[in-house]
Amino acid sequence: MILAVRDSATMLRRQLRHMSRSLSMLLMLLAVPIVFLLLFVFVLGGTLGDGLGGGTGGRAAYVAYVTPGILLITIAGAVQGTAIAVALDMTEGIIARFRTMAIARVSVLTGHVLGSLLHVLASLAVVLGVAVLIGFRPGATAVGWLAAVGLLTATTVALVWLAVGMGLAARTVAGASNLATPLTLLPLFGSGFVPADSMPAGLRWFAEHQPFTPIMEALRGLLLGTPVGTATAVVAVGWCVVIALVGYGWAKWLYNRDRTR
Amino acid sequence: MTNTSTGPAIAVTGLRRSYGAQVVLDGIDLHVPEGTVFSLLGPNGAGKTTVVQILSTLIRADSGEARVGGHDVLRDPDRVRAAIGVTGQFSAVDDFLTGEENLLLMGDLNHLCRAEGRRRAAVLLERFGLGEAARKAGAVYSGGMRRRLDLAMGLMGDPRVVFLDEPTTGLDPRSRRDMWQIVRDLVADGVTVFLTTQYLEEADQLSDRIALLDRGGIVAEGTPAELKRLVPGGHVELRFADVPALTEAAVLLGVSPDPADESLVLRVPGDGGVRALKALLDRLDAAAIEVDGLAVHTPDLDDVFFAVTAAEEVTSR
């Protein structure tokens, strides 16, 4: 157990070095949610905000509505980077070397997960900062902030493990990137940008039942200081747990299988 | 560990492995005494890398037993891993890290303390001529430098058994020589080296024993000298200016020229050693026969393979 912690710390240091040497890719990943935020708030936000109800909300109402969805896009975009980094790692001989060493096997993966978690949390802080700059006014209590950070962290851990699985399952770097792309689109096909009840029946059903919607709803409530239904909160956390467990199990199985067969 | 018995560094019996319907290893037996160099020689696709992968715990055999450093690769893989260093055919270097960082990473993963890790990294960088490139990223290293860094990474844990899978494939002649010297130094330190190669010369230069692997089976095993005796391919080619000189030499040396060959060349069997060559030329000189040109043909992998696999085919009939 102590060995696993020590090896994971070593792999985390390796991961942080990698990140410090691929800053341009990290900035690219960070640019996407910021561009989305600016686009939706300044280009579409006036009209969309009016449509949220009442007909007078405008841009200010929309920035409050869209920020949780943008935060989810931030996470999804960043974990796409995780999938790519894992796939890239697997094409290199260094992983074979790690497998011939007396180290905790899973540490290769936990290094990626911990590195990505730090990367995502930093990205979320930047994006939230931009949102505040353009008029996002969170009304969360201290407890609400804590819960919001907790939910964002849980979502990140879940999606990172899923992305690690994608990176391992893909045979190429491009394949890993493609596998992870739908994650960045899910907030759009949920209640991230417009309420689900404004959508046509089939799409609406999907939006209401996909995992990102309850997470975004819960996040919106926590950040704005509005009530969060117990059912929403339970479903949001439940999805995180399920995705995390499936992602972890899948990734571990893929990593431990005999890759040469 | 208190394993002080001087058993074999590697002991393999009845190793089999298939990929689907394709049999890659068909019952391999190997025995490598401690502190020796053992070469597995064979063409591409013979199964050399598969043997290394099994012995270094990367993949499992379908059946058979393999012990490395006294430990079973299946039952005790972590003990095996702690005892070995592996350098693959394709460099296992982290391109994002500098040479020094790659070595320090290996130090951390071998659970050395910081100071010891730095000390060993400095020694290895110096020893492998990587001192100047220590702070450059692995991505910019030349082929030879990568291979040396790769090997240095495998040595950070002070292994007792080192696997080198085609360590010089694709290297220029100078880098190849450097690699050979490194292997010799390793053996001088008492390390057991298990080497795979396609080059007979390399196996000849470095090994105590050589096994010839072909289509999943060991077709010959022995010391380099023993193996070479299996090969009739060594000869000296003498070229003459005209037919009388050729005929005269053929009579003198008791070798009949190839009637199908009209190039005035006589093939004299022999190993092409300096003494034998001098004696040959002295005889021709004493008989006042003018030699136009001379070439020494030493047995190469093709010859060995041809000889051994041809013999196999005969006995299996």
Automatic annotation (TrEMBL), chain B:
Belongs to the ABC transporter superfamily. Drug exporter-1 (DrugE1) (TC 3.A.1.105) family. It comes from Umezawaea endophytica. One of its GO terms (cellular component) is plasma membrane. GO terms for molecular function: ATP binding; ATP hydrolysis activity. This is ATP-binding cassette domain-containing protein. The lineage of its organism: Bacteria, Bacillati, Actinomycetota, Actinomycetes, Pseudonocardiales. It is found in: Cell membrane. The keyword Nucleotide-binding applies. SUPFAM superfamilies: P-loop containing nucleoside triphosphate hydrolases (SSF52540). Residues 10-240 form the ABC transporter domain. PROSITE patterns: ABC_TRANSPORTER_1 (PS00211), ABC_TRANSPORTER_2 (PS50893). Keywords: Antibiotic resistance, ATP-binding, Cell membrane, Membrane, Nucleotide-binding, Translocase, Transport. It comes from the Bacteria. GO terms for biological process: daunorubicin transport; doxorubicin transport; response to antibiotic. It is a peripheral membrane protein.
